[in-house]
TrEMBL record:
InterPro entries in the record: DNA-bd_HTH_TetR-type_CS, Homeodomain-like_sf, HTH-type_TetR-like_transc_reg, HTH_TetR, TetR_C_15
Pfam families: TetR_C_15, TetR_N
Chain residues forming the annotated DNA-binding region: 44-63
All residue ranges annotated as the HTH tetR-type domain in the record: 21-81
Keywords (A to Z) from UniProt: DNA-binding, Transcription, Transcription regulation
A molecular-function term among this protein's GO annotations: DNA-binding transcription factor activity
Domain of life (superkingdom): Bacteria
Lineage summary: Bacteria, Bacillati, Actinomycetota, Actinomycetes, Kitasatosporales
Protein name in UniProt: TetR/AcrR family transcriptional regulator
Presence of the UniProt keyword Transcription regulation in the record: yes
């Protein structure tokens, strides 16, 4: 009999957990909006709670402070960015002719940043918590290494030091393009086209005539 009384209650913690996850996601979405509008330094937990349509007390049930929100949001966005980056630099894309490859690689990465402006805010904000910026910098290093690996496939006889310079330049151009898109909200398409043109013109004399080996 005691066992029968306990069995119906078992699913309740799972339902509460699911509701809690939805509420936490709601708060993170609200934080993304507030960070985008006010920057990290200008945001407050009260503003985030107001954007989410909850009381500050409800927010504090999930996050002790603004920094904890930024860390959680940064982790979520970085995981999504890893997925976008992995798809953009797929084997299928890097085997395309250069003009098509630039489109296939750059477009989804730019789209991610356009759809998630809080990512740019947290990446470049001077007051962003160190745990967030450290994670972004670590991933930046991984992206740079991946670009170097791809360039080395195209340029097997080129010294590594020269490949590193090209990789840093490519990544620097892309980041500069993101800054321009963030500033020129009403002209993003024009700047998207211009960024891809710049990348193509820079890479064309470097790898435009190169052919990847079959095992790449």
């Amino acid at each position: 009999m005691p066992d029968q009384e306990l069995q119906p209650a078992a699913p309740k913690p799972r339902r509460r957990q699911a509701r809690g996850e939805r509420r936490a996601a709601q708060l993170l979405d609200a934080a993304a909006t507030v960070f985008t509008q006010a920057g990290y330094a200008g945001a407050s937990t009260n503003a985030i709670a107001r954007e989410a349509g909850v009381s500050p007390g409800t927010l504090y049930q999930f996050f002790p402070n603004k920094e904890a929100i930024a860390v959680e949001l940064g982790g979520r966005l970085l995981e999504q960015w890893r997925t976008s980056y992995g798809e953009a630099l797929s084997a299928e894309n890097i085997r395309l002719p250069l003009s098509e490859m630039v489109d296939a690689v750059v477009d989804p990465l730019l789209e991610f940043n356009v759809q998630n402006p809080a990512f740019h805010v947290l990446m470049h904000g001077p007051d962003t918590p160190g745990q967030v910026t450290d994670a972004f910098e670590a991933f930046h290093g991984a992206v740079l290494q991946r670009i170097e690996e791809l360039l080395a496939l195209y340029l097997p006889d080129t010294p590594r030091s020269e490949i590193t310079i090209v990789a840093n330049t490519v990544l620097g151009l892309f980041k500069a393009g993101l800054d321009l898109l963030a500033v020129h909200q009403d002209e993003q398409e024009a700047y998207r086209v211009e960024l891809k043109r710049v990348l193509f013109r820079y890479l064309d004399p470097v790898i435009g005539d190169c052919v990847l080996p079959d095992q790449a």
